[in-house]
TrEMBL record:
Signal peptide: none annotated. Belongs to the threonine aldolase family. One of its GO terms (molecular function) is lyase activity. This is Threonine aldolase.
Amino acid sequence: MLMQFNNTRKHFASDNYSGVHPAFMQALHTANQGHVAAYGDDYFTHELQRLIKQHFGEQARGYPVFNGTGANVLGLQCLLPRWGAIICPSTAHIHTDESNAPQVVGGCKLMLVESPDGKLTPELIAKEAYGFGNEHRSQPAVVYISQATECGTCYTLDELSNLADATHRYGMKLFVDGARLSNAVCHLQTDFHTMITKTGVDMVSLGGTKNGMMFGECLIDVTGNTGDELRYLRKMSMQTASKMRYISAQLITLLEDELYRTLATHSNAMAMYLSQQLSVLSGVEICYPVEANSVFVRLPDGVADTVRQSFAFYDWGGDGMARLMCSFDTTQQDVDALVSAIKQAM
């Protein structure tokens, strides 16, 4: 029997810490009816494909997977020849937060590029986009970015288009880690088709768990050019869910009636409110533009350790920076309580 517990403590460490939005709980309940075919041959997964095409274009094909690391590794595996390499920012999630999975499971070599704000540019990828045809050098084949980035910044539509154009001129593919894609879409007041399909992105992972789902992400082949490769690789990579309907039902709920937009707009707004409250405090530095649902901040010496006794959050980068993350269920009262604790510690 599960023990009862009362957890009223609010966390600003990660949007993964939040619970599950009731709509996704209802989706799981709806999917939990009777017996259906396994491994994606079910109503929910077929319906999800219709919505993927609606939001990402007629050529797009979606592949539900268990988690974000699985989506990234699987997608990069598919785009990358065995002798290829990935150009990515030094802050990239596949470099800093996914253990050795890209290298060991995906067989990926990473070419790291320093970036002041987590974003790549055509000029920055040019630093590693050389040596084509040289058998002694790994061949750059994929450019990996996050939208929103690990610094909480967002590529504009023009920046994405320019990056995609430059990537394709080199004969490479552009992969977007979209763990917080919904937050970026809301920040730019656009939609998935405009942000991803029209700008020339080749493949994207659509995040769910950071936007209120219980589990699951969706890897999307935007161009449809990979054929059935992703189906085979997904099984090889242990990302093929036997009861896939439970992932698909949640993703349907995320996309249907644009629930993703409602939830991400709220978490973005709470991050902006938090940054506004902190920016007026003497000695507090906001480190990056607040464009999604995270606030990167430097607090006066000793303040973070004191506040951490009541609120959870992550140190970031080893130079005194902290990351404060807002979720779909963060309230203004939660933010006010955190800011009050920071003021008291100062």
